[in-house]
Write a structure and sequence with these properties.
By secondary structure, the chain is an alpha/beta fold. The chain contains eight helices and 28 strands. Helices cover 17% and strands 27% of the residues. Bound molecules: ligand E8X.
Length: 607
């Protein structure tokens, strides 16, 4: 699905601002809120999560349906154009009514959905949009919630006996099987956008290198009923350079273009050079940025443009005060600026796809992204085989929509199908499940990027699936959740495990390691929770990574402190941030800056 842009043939009208809002107390459907809201509805800002916008438990900890309403007028001069209503993301399951009639429903809180409403409205006349969203998480949702005591972890729900999950509580209490606050609502932009009646539906770009030349395979999907054939001269493409000069071009729905002596897209601080593919079809025009870069795994190396890349960076969250998980482009700019400051080159979109604006920014700023689905919490506490949960087809549909949305971004260099599933207690089921998805993702991606999932700390000798991914991504907490505070033993455990991975002859990276750290808490001896401990933890463990040639990256957990469910393990959220939630550096940030500024993007390991 193309990102909505404005140009000479297209307009975008964002519906940001105050919307009417009301938590469903059970009367929404009998009172038909879709035909008009009760008088006591309050106002909330969109796009943003609803949870922290008002001082009320019922906002903060609501479970179930909540409703939004907005009346507005699509300008009369949009007449004659095709008109779409697009939601960039609503968490989690949602239904949309237009003037009281259902027009679409969508499952999942992190990907866009839209509807062609041309025939349903008269431009110039006021319309009413009603949106319901449900934030319930359970065995049918991604991210997953707990049912019947299947908790894997997730602050104090971990291993809680079934008593807390008794039937009468379910439906009232949300029990996430994941460690981030379940922020809900209309978290990203809602827009009305136009195209000409016949329009460009999709553009796919696959770059390749041929010596010094860039070779660009493109395909264009158009709205016309009959599929455009590849000689359709109505479709024109042009490659523009940064200055806007035409470099090459062609006609037809599919084709290959050659850019002589191409400038490559390379991660910051090298040159993340972007070209633009300008597509015209009839009255419509769409321009998509792209980079000439290749990604490939070879032996124990992760190659970008044929050169062995070393990942330095973080797992992150979309999370901030007041707006919760709402899109915050100012914060995105700040975060990328902090990544540059600290000498990082990458992050993982733990644990869900981020807003598209972030990927577009990373394309331009040269930050490398591991793009993750919301498949977090697929684990049954070691008791239940989570692969019996009814989730696989839904998981596949998310992979399809994710790849379709993000396929052209040069910043996206690997797909992560999920985070920390159970791979140890039910190894065969895990293998069958993840391998089907692994093959499926490879088939989906026109650029055929590496595919992986992120493995939880486990008995890696029993896990038979992590070792078969393109890249082994491990989350490890030696020295924190176990061997707590004992860095000598943590180093021993790391080395024992790294010996194991060395034999697998795979590229291996750490996608999470870290320790909760209270900013301002100091000690002369580095003990848990102090800033000194966090700095020491990274200093000592990183020194071990440097001894291993097959080890191709380090991503700390986490970039910044973030909100979680309340619980005995969490004092005002997860405090493993290298930055605080307001983006101040903890002591470890200065250590990492010193380290990472000396580690080049390419050729760090001489394997
Ligand atoms: C943590 C992280 C959590 O925030 C993240 O979302 C997933 C967790 C650790 C798993 N990984 O708790 O800070 C802990 C497994 C224990 C051995």
């Amino acid at each position: 699905m193309l990102y909505p842009i404005e140009n000479k043939s297209r307009a975008v009208m964002k519906l940001d601002g105050l919307w009417k809002f009301k938590i469903d107390d059970g009367s929404a459907s009998s009172e038909h809120w879709e035909t008009g809201f009760p008088d006591d509805a309050e106002e909330l800002y969109v796009p943003a999560s609803y949870n922290d916008q008002r001082e009320d438990q019922k906002y903060r900890n609501h479970t179930g349906e909540a409703y939004y309403e907005k009346t507005f007028t699509v300008p009369g001069f949009f007449k004659g154009q095709r008109i779409f209503l697009r939601f960039d993301a609503v968490a989690h399951d949602s239904t949309v009514w237009l003037n009281g009639t259902v027009i679409m429903s969508h499952r999942g809180g992190f990907l866009p959905f839209e509807k062609d409403i041309t025939g349903l409205i008269t431009p110039g006349e006021e319309i009413r949009i009603t949106v319901s969203c449900n934030n319930r998480v359970d065995h049918h949702t991604l991210p997953m919630g707990n049912e019947d005591g299947t908790a894997f972890f997730g602050s104090d729900n971990a291993q809680v006996p079934a008593v807390q999950m008794a039937k009468e509580h379910r439906g009232i209490v949300n029990l996430p099987n994941f460690d981030f606050f379940n922020y809900a609502g209309i978290n990203r932009h809602v827009s009305v956008y136009t195209t000409p009646m016949e329009y460009i539906k999709d553009v796919t770009i696959v770059p390749e290198l041929d010596g010094k030349d860039g070779v660009v395979h493109y395909s264009v999907e158009i709205s016309s009923k009959e599929k455009a054939n590849c000689h359709d001269s109505n479709i024109k493409v042009e490659v523009l350079d940064r200055g806007g000069s035409v470099v090459t071009g062609g006609t037809g729905a599919e084709g290959t273009l050659r850019i002589e002596n191409a400038r490559l897209w390379n991660p910051w601080p090298e040159d993340p050079y972007l070209y633009r593919l300008k597509v015209t079809f009839g009255d419509d025009e769409y321009t998509e940025e792209f980079g000439i870069r290749t990604v490939e795994v070879s032996g124990t190396k992760f190659l970008i443009n044929g050169k062995p890349f070393y990942f330095k960076g973080f797992g992150k969250h979309e999370d901030f005060y007041i707006s919760g998980r709402g899109i915050n482009e100012g914060l995105n700019v700040k975060d990328i600026s902090l990544l540059h400051w600290i000498g990082a080159n990458s992050f993982r979109t733990s644990h869900y796809p981020y807003a598209e604006e972030m990927y577009r920014l990373c394309d331009r700023e040269g930050i490398v992204i591991i793009d993750e689905t919301p498949a977090v919490g697929i684990a049954g506490g070691g008791v239940v085989d989570p692969y019996t949960f009814p989730i696989k087809d839904y998981h596949k549909s998310i992979l399809r929509d994710l790849v379709e949305r993000d396929k052209n971004h040069p910043s996206v260099i690997m797909w992560s199908m999920g985070n920390e599933p159970d791979t140890e207690n039910f190894p065969e089921s895990a293998y069958d499940y993840w391998h089907e998805l692994y093959e499926y993702t490879h088939e989906l991606d026109p650029q055929n990027r590496p595919v992986t999932f992120v493995c939880c700390q486990n008995d890696y000798t029993r896990d038979i699936v992590t070792r078969t991914m393109d890249v082994v991504c491990i989350n490890r907490y030696y020295g924190w959740y176990n061997l707590s505070g004992d860095l000598d033993s943590a180093i021993y455990a790391w080395n024992k495990e790294l010996d194991f991975w060395e034999e697998q002859q795979k590229p291996v990276m750490v996608t999470e390691y870290g320790c909760d750290t209270l900013p301002g808490l100091h000690g002369t001896v580095a003990e848990m929770w102090t800033e000194e401990f966090q700095a020491e933890y990274y200093r000592r463990i990183d020194a071990e990574f440097d001894k291993r040639d097959f080890f191709m990256g380090e991503q700390c957990w986490a970039f910044a402190d973030f909100g979680t469910i309340q619980g005995v393990y969490r004092a005002d959220g997860n405090r493993k941030g290298v930055f605080t939630r307001e983006r101040r550096p903890k002591m470890a940030a200065h250590f990492l800056k010193g380290r990472w500024e000396k580690i080049p993007n390419f050729g760090y390991k001489n394997n």
